[in-house]
């Protein structure tokens, strides 16, 4: 019989939690030996202050080594051969010529024989240089049986459309909610109704470091896999399977990574190929996707097609909403949050469908499904507000229960100068017309108990915090140090961190904005426990003071009227120092954030060109761990949303079924000339003493804010992203 | 060749690079270059006419004030030579697009910013190459590098070497830029995390310090 662990003593504490969108005090259970909480947000020495990131010196000087930069001795370079057809079967595969070419170490065919999108991986080669690997790809002869394809979503829904998967329908209902009869009755009570169709383009992550791995394996029992991933611990098991090794004999390393935005979990098909090639050649292999690979086979943000009808009272009350939502996920499922999204509608009814096309499967991207739903809903809310001649901001407040949104809208309005806005769309004189828009959003951002953190205080005064987590550029390394330094009364520079290695303590994947809320409580717990162990060990220096009687400030330890420097006190430790093993504390984190975005744009009514002028985003998140990096992340959310609103979108050739813009020259991400004045605002009226992740919350509403600003500026409602000049000119022409 | 050696004053014309990369036939990698600087020919007279190079070529690159010998194909880009052939590897310049659209591989050629993915290694042999590693080290950061850290002009950091290099060169040319001029100077560099506002701040702060 399994031995029962003695139950840990528990205590009950009260914390603030949002319940149905309203913050309320609730009771939760925590371990009785847990230390105190974070304390008031404005009482920290390091946390909630702006700190430059600790990996900055490495990153600005080229000394930070990313997966792409790894070059184990003798390493081979691998490349993937992609299918040129949108739908085809491989009937013949001949790599004999390629295999005989100089410098080619191995060619392997992929497992798929039916390929359902242009860009699907067919084979991979490993060669002494990337140039030779490219040559070998051209020498592989593949014969395809080309099958009918469909890449246009609306056409894929038609009954006679080519089937993406032979035995399945392209259009599949995935969910429905609400009461159709009630909604129909509610429409009868509405004073105004808007019915509209919204389409959002598929968006590419365009991580600057492409997906890929470097497999350092030369035969034998162990391997190290460097991976550009958001999950250090998502690598070893799958890599080990491909290499034929034990999971525990494969170490994954993620010291720095060049952007993921939701797309990088697991070894992927590129990792599978790299491991197989490495196993076959008993030689280290690098397989980083090329930029074109990245566009056509590494996944993208779901497209969306939404038909919505909504009814409103003249006083601004949303009484009814009916939605038919299509997730455009290519061969994948896609994602889309249900309408009426974050708003309260008297009655609603929605049906959600997955609509398949011959395009690669969408993958998670920063708040998957949410900017898409937000774009449609925030556009619709705007249309309703204008229809009943109500201020769009007041209209939103009317239909938002949570008072946090109200204060954030007021704050943002002040920052952008909402009072300057002309309430008449296109009402400003001249060719260049300015306008403003707003939108709101929410996200979870809570953590989980995956992180196991060791905090070791050395006899020489050193402090090391170890955990296998990864820093995506979000500032994880920096706040990890800061949390420990805050607890021990030291400076950030006094702490060293080791992360990004699967041999260190476990950690969760960085998805769903869960890293900060999972990691920081565990780090604090480890630091607190190390501090208590430390205090016990050095008690004799302080007249045998109890651990909780010692205070740690400004690099000093004090107790019973005595103050000793940190270093001196550490000298009393045993040679191995002391180590606190930190685990997650639920009471130090929470879920549920709010954000309000505002945008001001200038539309050239002769060219249809939109110039962003100013963007504001107000974001809460409990205790900001680092104000500098948090503001950077808010800026990043706004800029990525701006790209979605105005420039970005995958363009497909219907006839050939191939992507027409698979590169950074044609797929337009925001560049330096388009960046407006950016005003990131941390909502310090959020007094919750908990850590919450904000990465995803701050990308959602800015998209709607920009789209609505364009309407306010020129009076053209564009219901399909991106808002390129052709669409605006067409709207102006039809006005 | 669309431009002769004289017209380009011996400098590399990046527009040819995609052509040269394309002419590599199975394993041969033959290419025509208008000027070479290979070890064996170094002591000889400059060849007057274009010469055909093929196979592997030994080249000595002048990088960050040191000699870096590499053995590359004529079609190998400067970027790949630095990253894949130099010992130890110079991985500050990043490979992001490999076709001159993103600026992550920016290096200085005789002090001027250039996309190292658009320059052949054999063409770079006569040039003074500076990579981000040559601008400052973690222990001895340049003013521009320090400003990037202070203003948080980086997140994932993959675009950062390119931006740092571009701005370092630009501030030498224009030590007192306006915000608009900084934005113009950075238009050849892409960032995906959205660090632009703080990259601009970093450039302006570095300029303001008067120590660039």
Kindly describe this structure.
The complex is a heterodimer of chains A (735) and B (212). Chain A has 17 helices and 30 strands. By secondary structure, chain A is of the alpha+beta class. In chain A, strand 28 and strand 29 form a beta hairpin. Chain A is globular, with a radius of gyration of 28 Å. Chain B is an alpha+beta fold and 212 residues long. Chain B contains seven helices and seven strands; from the N terminus they run H-E-E-E-E-H-E-E-H-E-H-H-H-H. In chain B, the strands form two sheets. Chain B has a five-stranded mixed beta sheet with strand order 4-3-7-5-6, with helices on both faces. In chain B, helix 4 packs across helix 7 and helix 5 packs parallel to helix 7. The N and C termini of chain B lie far apart (39 Å). The N terminus of chain B is likely disordered. Classes of the chains: A alpha+beta (735), B alpha+beta (212). At the A-B interface, helix 1, helix 3 and helix 15 of A face helix 2, helix 4, helix 5, helix 6 and helix 7 of B.
């Amino acid at each position: 019989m399994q031995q029962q662990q003695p139950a840990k003593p528990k205590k009950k504490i009260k914390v603030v939690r949002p319940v149905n969108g309203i913050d309320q005090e609730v009771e939760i259970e925590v371990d009785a030996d847990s230390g105190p909480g974070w304390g008031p947000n404005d009482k920290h020495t390091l946390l909630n202050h702006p700190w430059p990131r600790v990996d900055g010196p490495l990153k600005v000087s080229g000394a930070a080594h990313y997966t792409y930069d790894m070059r184990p001795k003798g390493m081979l370079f691998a490349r993937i051969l992609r299918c040129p057809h949108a739908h085809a079967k491989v009937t013949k595969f001949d790599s004999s010529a390629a295999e005989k070419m100089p410098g080619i170490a191995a060619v392997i065919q992929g497992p798929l024989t039916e390929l359902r999108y242009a860009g699907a991986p067919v084979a991979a080669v490993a060669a002494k240089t990337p140039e030779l690997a490219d040559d070998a790809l051209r020498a592989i002869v593949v014969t395809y049986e080309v099958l009918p394809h469909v890449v246009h979503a609306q056409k894929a829904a038609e009954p006679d459309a080519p089937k993406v998967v032979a035995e399945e329908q392209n259009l599949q209902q995935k969910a429905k909610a609400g009461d159709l009869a009630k909604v129909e009755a509610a429409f009868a009570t509405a004073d105004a109704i808007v019915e509209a169709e919204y389409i959002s383009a598929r968006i590419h992550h365009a991580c600057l470091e492409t997906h890929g791995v470097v497999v350092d394996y030369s035969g034998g029992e162990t391997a190290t896999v460097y991976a550009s991933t958001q999950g250090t611990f998502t690598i070893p098991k799958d890599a080990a399977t491909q290499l034929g090794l034990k999971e525990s004999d494969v170490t994954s390393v993620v010291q720095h990574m060049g952007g993921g935005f939701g797309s990088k979990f697991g070894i992927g098909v590129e990792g599978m190929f790299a491991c197989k090639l490495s196993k076959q050649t008993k030689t280290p292999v690098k397989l980083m996707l090329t930029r074109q690979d990245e566009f056509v086979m590494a996944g993208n943000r779901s497209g969306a097609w939404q038909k919505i009808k909504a009814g409103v009272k003249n006083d601004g009350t949303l009484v009814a909403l009916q939605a038919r939502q299509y997730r455009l996920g290519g061969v994948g499922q896609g994602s889309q949050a249900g309408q009426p999204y974050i708003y309260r509608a008297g009655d609603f009814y929605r049906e959600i469908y997955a609509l398949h096309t011959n395009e690669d499967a969408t993958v998670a991207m920063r708040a998957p499904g949410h900017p898409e739903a937000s774009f449609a809903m925030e556009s619709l809310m705007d249309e309703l507000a204008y229809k009943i001649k109500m201020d769009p901001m007041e209209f939103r407040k009317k239909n938002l229960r949570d008072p946090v949104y109200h204060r954030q809208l007021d704050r943002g309005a002040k920052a952008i100068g909402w009072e300057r806005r002309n309430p008449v769309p296109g009402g400003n004189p001249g060719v260049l017309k300015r306008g403003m828009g707003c939108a709101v959003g929410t996200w979870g951002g809570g953590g989980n108990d995956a992180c196991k953190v060791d905090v070791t205080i050395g006899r020489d005064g050193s402090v090391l915090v170890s955990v296998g987590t990864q820093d995506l550029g979000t500032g994880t390394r920096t706040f990890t140090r800061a949390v420990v330094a805050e607890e021990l009364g030291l400076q950030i520079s006094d702490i060293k961190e080791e992360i990004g290695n699967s041999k260190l303590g476990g950690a969760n994947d960085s998805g769903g904005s869960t890293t900060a809320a999972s990691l920081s409580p565990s780090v604090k717990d480890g630091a607190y426990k190390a501090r208590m162990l430390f205090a016990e060990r050095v008690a004799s220096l302080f007249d045998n003071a109890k651990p909780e009687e010692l205070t740690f400030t400004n690099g000093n330890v004090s107790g019973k009227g005595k103050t000793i420097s940190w270093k001196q006190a550490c000298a009393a430790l045993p040679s191995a120092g002391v180590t606190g093993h930190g685990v997650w504390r639920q009471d130090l984190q929470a879920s549920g954030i709010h954000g309000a975005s505002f945008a001001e744009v200038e539309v050239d009514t002769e060219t249809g060109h939109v110039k962003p002028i100013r963007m504001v985003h107000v974001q809460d998140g409990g205790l900001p761990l680092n104000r500098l990096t948090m503001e950077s992340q808010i800026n990043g959310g706004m800029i990525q949303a701006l790209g979605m609103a105005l420039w970005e979108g995958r363009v497909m050739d219907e006839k050939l079924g191939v992507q027409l813009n698979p590169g950074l020259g044609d797929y337009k991400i925001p560049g330096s000339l388009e960046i407006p004045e950016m005003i990131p605002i941390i909502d310090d009226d959020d007094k919750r003493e908990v850590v919450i992740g904000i990465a995803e919350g701050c990308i959602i509403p800015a998209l709607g804010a920009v789209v609505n600003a364009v309407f306010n500026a020129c009076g053209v409602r564009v219901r399909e992203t991106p808002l390129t000049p052709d669409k605006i000119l067409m709207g102006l022409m039809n006005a | 060749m669309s431009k002769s050696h004289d017209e380009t004053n011996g400098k590399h014309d990046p527009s040819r690079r995609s052509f040269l990369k394309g002419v590599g036939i199975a394993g041969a990698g033959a290419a025509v270059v208008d000027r070479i600087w290979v070890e064996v020919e170094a002591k000889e007279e400059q060849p007057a006419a274009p010469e055909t190079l093929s196979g592997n070529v030994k080249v000595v690159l002048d990088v960050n004030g040191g000699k870096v010998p590499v053995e590359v194909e004529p079609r190998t880009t400067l970027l790949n030579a630095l990253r894949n052939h130099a010992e130890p590897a110079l991985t500050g310049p990043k490979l992001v697009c490999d076709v001159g659209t993103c600026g992550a591989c920016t290096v200085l050629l005789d002090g001027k910013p250039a996309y190292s993915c658009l320059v052949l290694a054999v063409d770079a042999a006569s040039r003074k190459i500076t990579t981000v590693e040559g601008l400052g080290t973690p222990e001895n950061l340049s003013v521009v590098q320090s400003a990037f850290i202070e203003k948080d002009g980086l997140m994932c950091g993959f675009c950062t070497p390119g931006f740092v290099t571009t701005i370092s060169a630009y501030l030498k040319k224009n030590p007192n830029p306006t915000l608009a001029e900084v934005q113009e100077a950075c238009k050849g560099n892409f960032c995906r995390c959205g660090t632009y506002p703080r990259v601009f701040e970093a450039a302006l702060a570095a300029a303001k310090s008067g120590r660039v």
